[in-house]
What does this fold into?
Amino acid sequence: MTTLIDAPPNEQDGLLPPKKSRSGGGLGAYIVVRFFLIFPTIFILVTLVFFLMRITGDPITAALGDRLPPEALAARIHEAGYDRPVIVQYFEYLGQIATGNFGRTISDNLLVTDMLASYGTATLELAINSLVVALLVGIPLGMVAARHRDKWPDAVLRFFAILCYATPVFFAGLLLKLVFSVALGWLPVAGRANSADEIALTSLVSPTGIYWLDAIRSGNMAALGDVMAHAVLPAVALGLLTGGVFLRLVRTNVIGTLSKDYVEAGRSRGVSEFRLVTKHAYKPALIPIITVMGLQIALLLGGAVLTETTFEWKGLGFQLAHYLTARDFVAVQGIVVLLAVIVALTNFIVDIVAALIDPRVRY
Amino acid sequence: MARKNQTLAQRLPILSHLRKSVGLQRGMLVTGLIITAIFLLTAALAPVIAPYGFAQHFDTQQPPSSAHLWGTTAGGYDVLSRVVWGTQTAVLVIVIAVVLSIFLGVALGLLSGYLGGWLDRVLVVIADAIYAFPTLLLAIVMSIAISHGRSDLWSGIFSAAISITVVFIPQYFRVIRAETIRLKAEPFVESAMVVGASSVRIMARHIYKNATRTLPLIFTLNASEAILTLAGLGFLGFGIEPTSAAEWGYDLNKALSDTTAGIWWTGVFPGAAIVLTVLGLTLVGESMNDLNDPRLRGRRRAGKSAPPAPIGPAGMGAVGTRGAGTSTVGISNTEDEVKV
It folds into this structure.
């Protein structure tokens, strides 16, 4: 999870050679340099996780440790090559992923790339759904809080935002389940769809893996309703976490822009407060929000692991917990590489967008 | 301590903040302090408050009754006792995690910022990579690596604390490094260099004291994050064994399967404990953060004595400038000051 405070955009952080003359290096050079910084990020995370996973033990002991005699176990480990020096295994792995070969998962013998594709879409669907919830909650409420700064609506909304942060997603999920699934019986308890719909959707000719999209494409309206009903609670649980952050961001930034001269000018001309907030102050306040969105991706992905476990949503996070227990190095590393690429790419795009909007970011 | 010549209120961060606060902000700060105090007291007095031990077995899944005020879990534990004992685990993990990460983060930040060069570059890239990655995932892998799965009280607490530390170091590192770079250019550091003070002395005496002003704030916010990470680890089953210590995340994990049967007491109480504790710590941290920032500090105190109709920036003929505080300070660089 990311801290509430700080989280500055990557600028001025010494990512680039500091104090390189301001005139030198235009946007093009900045983009190129920034692009190549993606690789060390991925490389560092892959290396870190590789060595940490080797400390945790090996998958063969984890799976058969108490069932096989030590000699048979050692033979199996030798066969799989896990008794070789770690550094040799490390360079072998680096060589493999450099050529795009991520191997096969040890515990269920899937191609890692297939595993990532099938579970990744489930996580993507959850991320999209919860991002929608987060934006729907965060932006309007943030504007309301800024408009009524230091009055009771602001106090209530700020408290709500802190509450969103303070509630772990799995507890929010548990409460939502208790109320909406068990007590009221409105929504399903867990999963992504009923088994019949799940089979119908996964057996389509070229499924995208995002169930609501597949349901719409195949015109299966009953399945769409079912998928939507399953999607609500996880999306709300995870969306509120991010929504609270958005609320605070929007509030702080709209308060900032509300005190600018041009807003005062508008006010003096009799523009209504509502219009001032929604038209004048809101748009420039979005710019810093975009730059912080990059860091929200990490929060969202971390939260996805917990949300998926809570709702048995079979995505990357759900599988990651499973593979970690099985000490399935290959699968865990595959997932980490994918997540590292997503995080690094998002931060890269965000930095470029920030540089396009604000020339001061470049140096 | 070089701070001896300051008054008591200036030395103690929370007291000075309390004096500065007004209205809503004081309310937030006081609420936070009260909740945090209750949390700490519960942890200290857990043996007295808890009716039973955290690993004591009873009949399973009993609803709340006079014998078990908050009922019992599927594993037969007394919910109230586990929630109370859980505060101890939380305090231990917070203290170990935050102290370790402050120590390492500050040391690395000072070195990196002061010495610069390739060391700085390498550390920044590593810190950024870790900082950007989902912290919980890293904490899980760390915790498995340290404890090889489940573990007893101390190794469980240490593995949770160290996993959290790894995630927090980059945050302290970033703050301290940025401050160090700023301070390095200050005249008092330059004069120390001219006089011939060693690098170690300059870092330890001159920069360290000045760069660590914001630490109490990060401490409170990280304490709440440490609780959430600990609970997350426990929830995913990579935390502390239930017989070694009471841990709220683990209890919530076990409570998840109870929900379908309509059993609410096993999950609601430990969950509420997490929310309240994090809420208290966050309210304290938040208020301190706002009070440290003149632009966000409550403006009512100035407003009371200020002229009834504040005059806005000259030339604009502002009508109804919103309070004296904002218009005088002016917000120049919102991008750099974003509070998430």
